[in-house]
Amino acid sequence: MNKLILLRHGQSKWNLENRFTGWHDVDLTSQGESEAMKAGVLIKDIILDRVYTSTLKRARRTAQLALEKAELAGANVNNIKQDGRWCLFEYEELRERDYGDLVGLNKTETAEKYGKEQVHLWRRGYEVRPPSGESLADVVNRVRPFFENEIWPQVVLGKNILVAAHGNSLRAVLVIIGEYDQEDIPNIELPTGRPLIFEIESGIKKNHYYLEE
């Protein structure tokens, strides 16, 4: 039985400041770095075959910090390290949802300006786009061909795969693998820096759970 591991990046600076982040390339906070390292300890007993991440710094650094900590904790990293460097597969398809004109705005202040109901629709409506941005449905459509053509075939082959990405790109993965439908997924919140494990047998999901300290 192999594993697909979904890991939302650790807390970012704009998570802390309650801002819409989207494609803006902010870094992790010290808490976010700590979350990433804790995730590494939690996955240390899983021999990874491939690690996928987005091109955004907060996801990439989460993967790197997790792997460094896993190695220090005794993980076998031979499959994902070459000449002393991590072999990360970075793709724009795994980027966070583009929040368009909302990027950089404080979420509370935006709700006060446009109304809580409107901002809730922008954030959680499956097909509702914020101004000049993407809906969650758009993110699913962006992620689906990449996931189905690149990541899922590796899972079906029996490989252990880590995907370190973002709240909305990982929500998209959950829709694509049939874990949630479009009615339920807007209400699903993935915690930062906490590995979500899917156990796979012959390409079929058997079980899923979060790893705990």
Plain-language structure description:
The chain is built from seven helices and eight strands. It has helices spanning 13-16, 30-42, 57-72, 107-114, 116-124, 136-156, 167-176, and strands at residues 2-8, 50-54, 81-82, 85-86, 88-91, 161-165, 196-201, 204-210. Strands 5-2-6-1-7-8 form a six-stranded mixed sheet. A two-stranded antiparallel sheet has the order 3-4. Strand 3 and strand 4 form a beta hairpin. Helix 2 (30-42) crosses helix 3 (57-72) and helix 6 (136-156) packs across helix 7. The radius of gyration is 17 Å and the shape is globular. The model has no long low-confidence stretch (mean pLDDT 96).
CATH level 3 topology: Rossmann fold
Instruction: Based on Cα principal axes, name the global outline.
Output: globular
Q: Determine Rg (CA atoms, Å).
A: 17 Å
User: Structural class, from secondary structure content?
Assistant: alpha/beta
CATH architecture: 3-Layer(aba) Sandwich
N-to-C CA distance: 22 Å
Strand count = 8
Number of domains: 1
**What is the CATH C-level name?**
Alpha Beta
- What percent of the residues sit in helical stretches (DSSP H or I)? 25-40%
- Kindly report the spatial arrangement of strands forming the biggest sheet: 5-2-6-1-7-8
Major sheet:
6 strands, mixed
